[in-house]
Amino acid sequence: MTAPPPTPSPAAPQPPLIAVRQLTMGYALGSRRVEVLRGVDLQIAAGTRVAIAGPSGSGKTSLLLLLAGLERPSAGQVVVDGVDLGALDADALADLRRDRIGIVFQSFHLLPSLSALDNAALPLQMAGRRDARDVAGAMLARVGLGGRLQHRPSELSGGEQQRVAIARALVHRPRLLLADEPTGNLDDQTAESVRDLLFELNRDFGTTLVLVTHDLSFAARCDRVLRLHDGQLHETDPASLRAPADAVPA
Ligand SMILES: Nc1ncnc2c1ncn2[C@@H]1O[C@H](COP(=O)(O)OP(=O)(O)OP(=O)(O)O)[C@@H](O)[C@H]1O
Ligand SMILES: [Mg+2]
Looking at residue 87, what DSSP letter applies? Predict the structure, then answer.
């Protein structure tokens, strides 16, 4: 006789994957200083899908760079997966990104001398994975680039480069994906398949998604929508962005 399985205990409350406190950041412009973020507070639960919207120049990219530890705030704190980024040096930040964070940059940041395959395989190669190219090849096929593996970035269209950047951000199955307008350069059909891929990853692996997007139908599919305006984040109900045809009948 085997013992009956233990009754599951109620799940302990999970700490947020991202905890931002009083985040302030600005840029020096000559003798002036432009404040972009003015004391932003934000908590994001693990496994959620969060869209960040806001006008051009409102600081969306700056916020993502701070969450990735690629910029330092002038004040405030960013904690990702229990780690206070302010306490880490550049090497430790790079290790954290390599292990837990995927980033899709607005301008892709692909390495020009590497093929699509080698660009996408890079995070796995840095982690010493011997199957790096196989996994990267499969991810590129997933984003519809199976026929472009050996092309360099200069030989790819903007949308194709964006998909290589997405594949590169996802190959190591990060806990957190930060994506800056990941569908901004894609045609409707490819954008839809990239959206589906991101949501599938969220569902299957619990990847937390933080997406900057101007695409309201994309934002409406997320759990939360945050609008950045005047250096502050404002929570918006995703349901309010859904077209009446998408509304669930009462
Ligand atoms: N390196 C920099 N030096 C000076 N100012 C900067 C720098 N980077 C960004 N800024 C300024 O900070 C503000 C926010 O920029 P950011 O790139 O975060 O905006 P954004 O919301 O991502 O805009 P977009 O939707 O156009 O991508 C802008 O006014 C920009 O001019
Ligand atoms: Mg931007």
Answer: G
Cα 41 from Cα 79, distance rounded (Å)? 11
Q: Which residue stretches of 42-150 are H helix?
A: 60-67, 90-100, 116-126, 132-142
User: Do residues 181 and 132 lie in contact, with contact meaning Cβ atoms separated by under 8 Å?
Assistant: no
Tokens of 64: 């993502």
Domain count, the chain: 1
Amino acid in the structure at residue 14: Q
Full-model pTM? 0.89
Cβ(58) – ligand 1 distance below 6 Å: yes
Question: Which of 34, 74, 183 for mutating ligand 1's site (highest number of atoms within 8 Å of CB)?
Answer: 34
The whole-angstrom separation of Cα 164 and Cα 82 is 30
Asked if the structure places residue 149 within a domain, the reply is yes
Which domain CATH number covers 210?
Answer: 3.40.50.300
CA–CA gap between residue 151 and residue 116 (Å, rounded): 6
Rounded to 5 degrees, φ, ψ at 50 are -125, 125
Q: pLDDT tens across 202-245, in order?
A: 998 899 999 999 888 899 999 999 999 999 999 999 988 887 66
In the sheet that holds 208-212, the strands lie side by side as 101-104, 176-180, 208-212, 49-53, 224-229, 232-236
